Amino acid sequence: MFATDSHIPEVAVVILSWNGRRQLADFLPSVCRSTYPRLKIYLADNASTDDTVAFVRRAFPDVHCLLNDRNYGFAEGYNVALRRVQATYYVLLNQDVEVEPGWLEPMIAFMEQHPQVAACQPKLRSYLQRDYFEYAGAAGGWLDALGYPFCRGRLFYTLEKDVGQYDDPVYLFWASGAALCIRAEVFHAAGGFYAGFFAHMEEIDLCWRLQRMGYRIGYCPRSVVYHLGGGSLPQGNPQKTYLNYRNNLMMMARNLSRAERWRRIPFRMLLDLLSIVYGMAHRTPAEMLAILKAHRDFIRWYRKNRRALPRQAVPLCELQGYYPGSVIWQYFAKRKKFFSNLPIKTRLIALNLQDQ
Question: Where are the membrane-spanning stretches (predicted)?
């Protein structure tokens, strides 16, 4: 895979945790069994109030512990921790991810073979339904014309069974933060995650910025991991709803040109409000209120930050993994439940994986 041992890049697997003792007990053993030769595993603890750090130090003495002084959230928590980690590649891994044996080697070989790729993700399957893709990343992320993220293998809450239909390594719009392999130098050059998100959408925003910088985002299906998901904020939690809606609007404002912002964001906000009406039979009052609060706080954020937002930006239509239509329309109106059913005319660019 590599010419000599001296050519093997250093890899740091960094697991951000907050009060994650129970999940780390279940999932960290598989990570510690990784066979990659130049690997260090780090626990980045976000000021846990339980005995997470003491447990890891006792049960996994080879894991290096990085102690953040407070709970910075996902985005800034990683930024603070990674300033203290030296490696060629970072692999940011959720605390509820189980990895297959030999999971790292294909991703690092993938990155070494494709210098234009700044970040990639493995195939994410469900920990509870192991033959199915997992919500948080599946076989790689896309984005539609109104900023709705979706995945190959997952449209909204419809998860596909993995029968090899997405075993082609391709370019993506975004790679999942549940298991994100990224060049360390590029992560810092891009400014890391945007701290204002706290959690959710930070990896999509980062991947969008990386594409604007001229890099590509890739998918490495030869690496397989299993994600439990919903460990910190489960689906239906009003705080999760709030962060997803607010952060999605912030992400669009941070990456679109001024002309595209004025064309896309108001229509997106209208759809958000319509989703409240549609969701009256499905959402709790707290969830619907969370959407309104998300809009309010986005407007406040926009007023404060509008002068720093880009006037010009790479058009969405020029980015890989962009779907020019509406995934909402295709899923709910036309009943297209699988990624392969979408009328995508853009040719998926398959990447050559020789010698892996």
Answer: none
